[in-house]
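Folding problem:
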Amino acid sequence: MKKILYIAVIALAGLCSCSKEVLNPIPSNAVSDEQIFSTIESAQTALNGGIKWIGYYLTNTLQVVMSEVMGEDALMTNGNYGIDTYNWNLYSYTYSQVPEDEPWWFGYSNYIWEYDYKGVDAANNIIAYVTDMPEATGKENLLGQAYALRGFMFLRLCRLFAPTYTINPEGPGIILRTQPADAASEDIGRSSLKDCYDRIIKDLDYGRQHCSDANAAYFTPRSCALFMARAYLDMADYANAKKYAEEAASNTFDGSNLMSQDEYQAGFMDPNVEWLMYYNFNQTTSNYYCSIPSFYYLAKTAVSADATGKANPADIEYLDGPEEAKYFEEPLYGYSSVRWTKRFRESFEESDCRKLFPFYFYAEDGWFTSKFSHRDLYIGDADFPLARIAEAYLIKAECEAHGGDGKAVLNALQIARGATPTDGSLENIYYERRKELYGEGFRLYDIKRLHQPLERKDPEHWASVKNLPADSPRFMLPIPQNEMLYNKALKPSDQNEYWRK
């Protein structure tokens, strides 16, 4: 079968080009609140709009890729090896983030902050208007979805813009906006981390008790339970983290509720029994070149790779040639700018289905991963998991290790993935998280909550920031400059430590 190389020339690529203008689209929705919230059915459109911000490329893609490249297993190509960086996430990798929004590629915090709070505001509007609507079928679920959305967004914001909870629960968290925003809204300062996590837990628990949607593209009781377990783990509340991880996994930890090895190796693009919640991308809603697989994936196989996995990038020119010139299997150019270190790749056994690092071009530039693929070779046409049962296994194992031994649960996951079981030490559980969840946006948050230092010992790392101490203030993003300027409830001392002037 003739393989086709897709080149980045489609018109929609302009949505993701590196120009400032496209980052602030003018909204086309001029429907009034009275129209939107006149019926449960019309209010559902507001929920769909709020859910949209979960997967928007200036929130989800930036946060997921950022969390990986700010760690030690992933890195960015430096542009010297045939594939440009396009500036995307380059300054996250080098820890060069700034509060300003000019130039835009230095100031990702501005977009993440703005659009995550758009999701919060959508939830606040639903809660404010739907609560007073007459009882009707779907009302309870709609409110559950709104509370869950708000809790989910607050948790994302806390993990990026606030210090680790266990350092000081009374320390500065985020801004808890719980009312619809308008021109007359009062300025609000930062709440304590304790208040923030209390709100997060209450919102997610409301969703857990009231969401009835069976569609995993929305919040469900089990996905809310997993998000609660995630929040409790941040708080080092191991009893509750374990409790809700067990609920998320239906208290089944024998491997039967995990995806198969074939499903794992196919490349994350279609939901399966393990995905408790996912963002539904398709050819219409796709983020195209700004999708997550665009940054990770080039091809599943380089047929011409040598015994070390080295492939010749020049071979890619011949993919439109005859059948015998099939040097790569199913290639697709997105940005393809994120790599993984040799050491991380070699930490996986050959039998481990998660060892999805098919080839490299230059040893200095790291390995590609095929963990995240695209349907039908259409850029960005791939659903993205927001909650997987495997995370529940890892949370339960970690919680049990704090009070005894997490070996049984850890081993069930390892065996399901084709890996050799290990003992249930915390060290092994922490590393299993890296192997199971890589590329999904967990690494930075784990470094923070576990009070670990950043140690980039691999020779592939070219960034000048190779080491940071545990609890470094640089593990947070800056509060955006515009928030600091126009929110009169904030003082200069409210800026995160590294960026204070």
